[in-house]
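Example 3.2
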Amino acid sequence: MQFSGRFLGLFVIVATACSGGPKEQPTPDASANDAAIVITPDASTNDVVVTNEAAPTKVDIDGDGLDDADESAWAEEYFPFYAIHPSDGCKTHGVVYRLSPHPADATKLSITYDVLYDADCGANGHDGDDEVFSVLVDPKKPGVSGILAVRAISHQGTPCEHDTTCGVCQGMSACGTAQRNGSAYPVVYASKDKHGNYADKPTCDTSFICDFGGCGLPSTADASPLVNAGEAGKPLVSNLTTQGFITTTNGWTHQELFDFDPWKPGNFGGAGDVSKDLVDPAFVIAPTGCP
């Protein structure tokens, strides 16, 4: 809809006179989703253009204060180079993640990635496997520049546990990198057949008893399906088979893993409890000393 500049000026004068003078206007609420009236000049006709522009609609089903579509984009953008050993004998896997504002600094994000496998085929193998790592992110920075730190804990809660953290924050060792999306991304290594996650390859390679075969770097980055679990009490997924994650088409073979609910307490086959993995404070990296 268009009004001439002269007509709009007359309208403003009359409106001001009727109201008893100009009044202070309220400050717009940037968080509101209401439609906004936008008036812009058209230099070619000396008219103004009046339009209704609806603010973007925020969808936050899991109730963590973040738009769910943004969460999906961030989870992909800040996913490290995940390195499954080239000779691994049981590679079928996918990733469930929880992304939320960092509890100590809401300007940062904490992303917990839980890698689920069809099987652990190493020593004392079992159906199902869950191995976790996390990333501390500054979402104001794009791509790899936004990854501040990475933490991996292999075989958590067992005598084989190894905790490794790397990053650009004070006191941290630099992460090893490999090319992903045309940039040098931090690498998270998964040990051969056992899938223990490491943010430091030498630590993996010297864990002979627990991770025989060590870690290796494939020629290309892993392209795991990423599924947002949401939050406890407000899940975004409750069945990883109907959702399209754990299916025979994707190579999964162990029926006890089908129709798995990541927020339902209980073990993932012969592995750990995914509902506990997703909220484990051990994977929340302190944002102190970060640029």
